[in-house]
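Dihydrofolate reductase family protein, pasting as requested.
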Amino acid sequence: MRKLVAFEHLTLDGFASSGQGTGFEWTHRAYSAELAEYAAHIQADFDTAVYGRETYLGMYGYWANQPNEESSPQERAHAEWVNAVDKIVCSTTLESAEWNNTRLITGHLAEEFSQLKAESGDTIAIYASPKLVHSFLDLGVIDEFRLVVHPVVIGSGTPLFPDKTALDLELIESKSFESGAVYLRYRTA
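Structure tokens follow.
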């Protein structure tokens, strides 16, 4: 059975999005070359990327036109990966998903993802998309959290875990980076 993983960047005060601009501007402070290199390890077993509408539109708008001659080696590698990987966008308002290798799911998340998890393949990863993570938390189908905690406090935004979320987690991996970011990998107990 495949795993469903939430791969998130978080502020120290638990927000996955600032709710302003792209929502992730605060990640630049601690997103170092060391962390970018380690990201390949974090997502080494991912064969399907899942996005909510907002994250999908931002990712598609940027990565579908990458790499370019100004891309760093890490950006180039990620661009090649993200443009080739199977992608799913979950949205009740999008009418189509134009990015290559992308499937649109408009409802019935529990059924769709139960079926996907039962198929052969590797890990299915939700990228960012905190509101979508909330939906999957309500369904109880997330198997792991792979979190990069950044040394910033933003005071408000969209939390990864909404009020009254209760989970028992088991730490299976951690790593700190010179930039002050910390990677934490938890399995749901």
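Note for the archive: The chain has one domain: 4-188.
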